[in-house]
Design brief:
Length: 412
C-alpha cells in the first residue's frame, strides 16, 4: 500500500475530521472553565468519528459508543459538535459490510435504553450549558423532558442509519442495472460475433464445396482427356489409323466441352444434375472407357431411387474413384466397379467398391490433393463413410476404395 494511495484514499476523510475539529474547538474553549478541559477530548473523538465514518465505519461507531457511555457515566456535558457522530451510523449502513450494517442498527435502541435508564433513575441528563434553557422550559411546561430527549435521540440516530441503508440499496440497484446492461451489451456483441463467424464459416464452406466440385469435374475430365490422348500411341499403323485418330480427337473435344459445361454449372450454383452429363454414371463410364480403360461394372441387388443429395454424393465419389483409377492404375488391368444394394432385412446402406491394379509409373496429372478429403467430407455430409486401402490381389498390388452411403428415399 503506497503512501500516494493512502493520501488519495484518506484525504477527503481527513478534511472532514479537520473541519469538525475546527468547529468543535471554539465550543470546547467556551466551556473549558467549567468542564476542566474534558470537552476537548470529546471534540477530538467527534472529529475522529466523522473522519473514519467512510473508510472505517465500524471502528468509528465503536469509538462513538464508548465515548458516549463514558460521557454519561462521568456526567460530562454533551457538546453540539458531537451531533456529527451520527455520521458513523450512516457510514455503517452505507459502506460497512453486511454484518456491520445490521449490527449498527442495535445502536439506536441501546442509546434509547441508556437515555431511559438515566431518566428513570432521576439523574440529570448531561447537556451543554447552552441547552440548559431548553431543559428548564420543558420542565416548567410540564413536559417530560427525558422522553423528549429520547425521541430526539432516536430520530437523530435512526434517520442517518435509514438514509445510509437507502443509499446502499439504491447504489446496489444501480450497480445491478449497469451490470445487466453490460451483460446485455456483451450478449449482443457475442451474438453479432457469432453471426459473423457463422457467415464466415458458411463462406468458407461454400469455397471448400466449390473447390471440391471444380477438383472433381476438372480432375476427372483431364484424366480422361489425358488417357484418350495417350491411347493414340497404341493405334495400329494402317489405313484405319486416321479414322481412329479422328475418333480419339472427337472424344477429347467432347470431354473438354463436358468439363467446361460442368464447371459453368458449378460456378453458377446450378443443381449438380441440371443437364451435366458427368453426373450420370453411364456418361462417367463412357468417358473412362473412351480413354482406353476397361471398366467392369457389376450391380448386386436391386437398384433403388436415392435422394438427390445422396445421389449427387454417390456419383461424385464414383467419379473421383474412377479418376484415381485412371491416373494410378495399370492400363492392361480392368478397373472393377461393384455396387451392392441392400438385400437383407435391416440393411440401409449402398456399398460402392472400386478396385484397380497400381501402375509402376502413375499418370502424371497435377492434383491439389483434394480428392480423398473431398470424398470423405461429401460422404460425411450425408451420413456415409469411406475406407481406402492398398492390398495384394490377383493382379499384384491393388488400390481399394469402398464407400457406404445411406439409402434414403427420394423426397416427394
Amino acid at each position: 500500500m503506497s503512501v500516494s494511495w493512502f493520501r488519495r484514499a484518506w484525504s477527503p476523510d481527513a478534511a472532514v475530521g479537520l473541519a469538525v475539529l475546527l468547529l468543535g474547538l471554539p465550543e470546547a474553549a467556551w466551556h473549558a472553565p467549567t468542564a476542566d478541559g474534558r470537552q476537548y477530548l470529546l471534540v477530538v473523538a467527534a472529529a475522529a468519528v466523522a473522519g473514519g465514518s467512510r473508510r472505517a465505519p465500524g471502528t468509528a461507531l465503536a469509538l462513538a459508543v464508548l465515548v458516549s457511555v463514558a460521557q454519561v457515566l462521568s456526567a460530562t456535558p454533551f457538546l453540539l459538535v458531537q451531533v456529527v457522530e451520527v455520521s458513523a451510523l450512516y457510514g455503517c449502513a452505507r459502506w460497512g459490510n453486511r454484518a456491520t450494517a445490521w449490527l449498527s442498527s442495535l445502536t439506536v435502541p441501546l442509546a434509547a435504553g441508556l437515555v431511559l435508564l438515566v431518566g428513570d433513575a432521576g439523574g440529570p441528563l448531561p447537556t451543554a450549558g447552552s441547552l440548559d434553557w431548553l431543559i428548564i422550559w420543558l420542565s416548567q411546561s410540564g413536559t417530560n423532558w427525558a422522553y423528549v430527549v429520547l425521541v430526539t435521540a432516536v430520530t437523530l440516530l435512526g434517520l442517518p442509519w435509514l438514509a445510509g441503508l437507502t443509499v446502499r440499496f439504491a447504489e446496489r440497484a444501480r450497480t445491478a442495472r449497469r451490470s445487466q446492461e453490460a451483460a446485455e451489451a456483451d450478449t449482443e456483441r457475442a451474438r453479432a460475433e457469432r453471426a459473423q463467424a457463422q457467415e464466415i464459416a458458411a463462406l468458407q464452406e461454400e469455397q471448400a464445396r466449390l473447390a471440391r466440385d471444380v477438383h472433381d469435374v476438372v480432375g476427372h475430365s483431364l484424366a480422361v482427356i489425358l488417357a484418350q490422348a495417350e491411347s493414340a500411341q497404341y493405334l495400329p499403323d494402317n489405313e484405319g489409323a486416321r479414322q481412329d485418330m479422328e475418333r480419339v480427337m472427337r472424344n477429347i473435344a467432347a470431354s473438354a466441352r463436358t468439363s467446361l459445361q460442368d464447371v459453368r454449372h458449378v460456378l453458377a450454383g446450378a443443381p449438380a444434375d441440371a443437364g451435366a452429363r458427368a453426373e450420370r454414371l453411364d456418361d462417367i463410364l463412357t468417358g473412362v472407357r473412351a480413354g482406353g480403360r476397361e471398366v467392369i461394372h457389376t450391380e448386386h441387388g436391386t437398384e433403388r431411387p436415392l435422394a438427390p443429395d445422396v445421389r449427387d454424393v454417390t456419383l461424385r465419389v464414383l467419379q473421383e474413384s474412377l479418376t484415381n483409377a485412371v491416373k494410378h492404375g495399370r492400363r492392361s488391368v480392368p478397373v472393377r466397379l461393384d455396387r451392392h444394394w441392400p438385400q437383407r432385412p435391416g440393411e440401409r446402406e449402398l456399398r460402392v467398391e472400386v478396385r484397380n491394379a497400381i501402375a509402376a509409373e502413375p499418370m502424371s496429372v497435377a492434383s491439389a490433393g483434394l480428392g480423398l478429403d473431398g470424398m470423405r467430407q461429401r460422404l460425411a455430409s450425408v451420413g456415409g463413410r469411406l475406407d481406402i486401402r492398398r492390398e495384394t490381389g490377383g493382379e499384384g498390388e491393388e488400390f481399394h476404395v469402398t464407400a457406404w452411403v445411406p439409402v434414403r428415399a427420394k423426397s416427394r
